[in-house]
Design a protein that fits this description.
globular; four-stranded mixed beta sheet; alpha/beta; 240 residues; single chain; six-stranded mixed beta sheet
Length: 240
């Protein structure tokens, strides 16, 4: 008997929908799931028929409850490293993918699942979404980039408060602090993400890729250095 698919893929009109499909564990990120997601993102980056990617969870209760701790308890030191590396490689692939990656978040978005969402270009949340870092209460450092990504998105003061207290925040609070771009009903979440992706399709793919690279490379540079990068992206043939 074959094992059930842990990642579902559906391409519609240029939008690749990737669904984390481990509802029994609230879509916890096992080594296998993270690795398959990494491979899917890498493939999407190469395919001309993919213009945007949407990542969501199969269960309305959770986008992802984080790293699969049940699996982690069974792993050797090398296995734990491989599990952590699989998630890190996936978030890096999302950040470097030339196609916009949209996280459609409903229910729990915790720990490694939260870091997965942070690595996406656009985050759209359902009204029932909840975000947090439960590993902090267990004395575990969120090693998937939380301390780097979160303050760049919501500011250092809010990031400190969230990380130091491990307080869970609602979708509404996530919207108010800029963590998510928009909030919608849980039942309309994927449709809303598809609508955003469809707008991307109207923009030349090369321009989208250049803009994503420009945003990523300039975000942490001083003003002058960031502006000096502009010719790198505007002289690539698009405006000639």
């Amino acid at each position: 008997v074959s094992e059930p698919a842990v990642l579902l893929q559906e391409l519609t009109g240029g939008t690749l929908l990737l669904t984390l499909n481990r509802p029994e564990s609230l879509n916890a990120l096992s080594t296998r799931l993270a690795s398959e997601l990494h491979a899917a993102i890498d493939e999407a980056a190469r395919r001309e028929d993919v213009r945007a990617v949407v990542i969501t969870g199969a269960d309305v209760r959770a986008f992802s409850a984080g790293t699969d701790l049940r699996e982690r308890r069974t792993l050797s030191a090398d296995g734990k490293w491989a599990q952590s590396r699989a998630l890190w490689n996936t978030t890096e692939a999302i950040r470097h993918c030339p196609k916009p990656v949209i996280a459609a978040i409903t229910g729990w978005c915790l720990g490694g699942g939260f870091e997965l969402a942070l690595s996406c270009d656009v985050r759209i949340a359902g009204e029932g979404a909840r975000f947090g870092w439960p590993e902090m209460t267990l004395g575990a450092y969120p090693g998937g980039g939380a301390a780097v990504m979160l303050p760049r998105i919501i500011g250092i003061a809010k990031a400190r408060e969230m990380l130091f207290t491990a307080r869970r925040i609602s979708g509404q609070e996530a919207l108010s602090c800029g963590l998510v771009a928009s909030l919608t009903g849980d039942g309309q979440l994927v449709d809303r993400a598809r609508q955003v992706a469809a707008r991307v399709h109207a923009i030349p793919a090369q321009l989208i890729g250049s803009m994503k690279q420009a945003l990523g490379e300039s975000a942490d540079l001083p003003w002058g250095q960031a502006l000096a990068l502009e010719p790198k992206f505007t002289n690539d043939g698009i405006h000639k």
